[in-house]
Design goal:
Rossmann fold, alpha+beta, Heat Shock Protein 90, 35% helix, elongated, 4 domains, Ribosomal Protein S5, domain 2, six-stranded mixed sheet, nine-stranded mixed sheet, 21% strand, 23 strands
Length: 624
Amino acid sequence: MEKRQFQAESKRLLEMMINSIYSQKEVFLRELISNASDAIDKIYYKALTDEELTFNQDDYYIKVVANKDDRTLKIIDTGIGMTKEELENNLGVIAKSGSLAFKTENEIKDGHDIIGQFGVGFYAAFMVADVVTVISRALGSDEAYKWQSEGADGYTIERTEKDEVGTEIILKMKENDEEESYDEYLDGYRLQTIIKKYSDFIRYPIKMDLTKSRKKEGSEDQYEDYVEEETINSMVPIWRKNKSELTTEDYENFYNEKRYGFDKPLKHIHISVDGTIRYNAILYIPENIPFDYYSKEYEKGLELYSNGVLIMNKCSDLLPDYFSFVKGLVDSEDLSLNISREMLQHDRQLKLIAKNINKKIKGELQSLLKNERDKYEIFYKAFGRQLKFGVYSDFGANKETLQDLLMFYSSKEKKMVTLDEYISRMPEEQKYIYYATGESIERIEKLPQTELVADKGYEILYFTEDIDEFAIKMLMTYQEKEFKSVSSGDLGIEENETDTESKDEENKELFNEMKDILAGKVKDVRVSKRLKSHPVCLTADGEVTIEMEKVLNAMPDNQNVKADKILEINSNHEVFEALKNAFANDKEKLSLYTNLLYNQALLIEGLPIQDPVEFTNDICKVML
């Protein structure tokens, strides 16, 4: 028996395979099972053109056998097998793929696509094994051969005996070391987990002998162990079944089996595309937000399969950030994978799939909004914030995609409404979409700034989340209608402009004095155009609103952002007369009143008072 050397290039590649190509050692089992599946597929394709050959799928299987005593793991298949020459060519020359050659020579159609392409997956076995032995008997041959290697030093091939056609791979597992325990790959439960994770949807049964326990016959409290052969994998994936065969319960069971969440999905999307690029997908819109959704630990992405074999657990490129809540998987035969089948080449196919998935998700959400409003509101309560982040992020690049999905609480409807619904109710003379910001609906309803807009009969959208105003600022307009805060300088509905201007001019000295008293706190003091019953309020002049100031300054790396605040005084309120009298007769009292009104306005806005003790002392002075 002569020891043969790998080709020089193959030897270097084998060393790479063992040390760097695969990020996780457990994928060796995925690769060997995929090769076994390919071997059975080859018989299937031969049977299509060979009248003497029949293919009965029930006769074909893959079996995994672990033996802890002699530290061996066997992967046995009933596939096409290999001749001596094929062992030499396919295993002696690394990166020469027998599957790829077979695929090239035979026009592969009808969904039984050969998985292997690179001819390197077999050598992943050397990550976990000191010795790899392959015993194979080819279809149509009476002879069997054994290929054996201890790694980069070379391999041997010799004749042997094998009763059945097929291939048996025997791995002599490495001894445990400080960094790795190889015992786990001999543990039945661990092997089942790896098979379910990567190879659950291989189309042939993957069998294992499992040790179970049962009561001894005739005994009430004594148990005995017994061995039973079981099929570990599901074989036929749900996404390859016809939608008409499946019920909502089937989709929900699959959601639970894959542990996508502990809730029930609000909606599922089953996609089957057979065009320029072929793929199947099952997507879920969850009902509840994951506990870690807004943490660094949360990973977005869909499971990615190639021909039923798991390639990536979280393929983030398939989902935009604003739809990162979507769970599910994609399976495609047309993906360009890298040599380890663990990562994708970022190519046209992936982008096409992602683009189509994005459209499908948006379409499903729009359908939910239109036809199942209650369900959409449940979804929006959980994930509406993420849609708003999507509008705001990337400099508003996605606002056109997301704007029709947004909802806000309405002052008139007393419930959540869309922007389109708001527009549909706008009176003809109304120029703007009005909104008010605050910590809660209850607080917004008490804001003095809403008085004029509400008195006019116009609907106001309530913004209660910190992202709301930022998203709307990025959106700027909706159906050519500009957004306008009830706290903005110009509401577009003010009456008696001349009267207000004359009062400002008439009381210019009073307002300048008040502005000096509040030096550095407000940009200006003026007569209010919006107040009806309240004496005072704060508004903002410029792009940064008071609510934005609160949000930005609550951030860890805040830059002490300040809105340009305007103190507005209601000239029709009794307080205004008190101010004028104090200005004329008692400047100390004017200072007291001015500070009280300013602090009152801060409290209404939910802003902190700089000196609470001084504020309480000022209240006491008024009472004396």
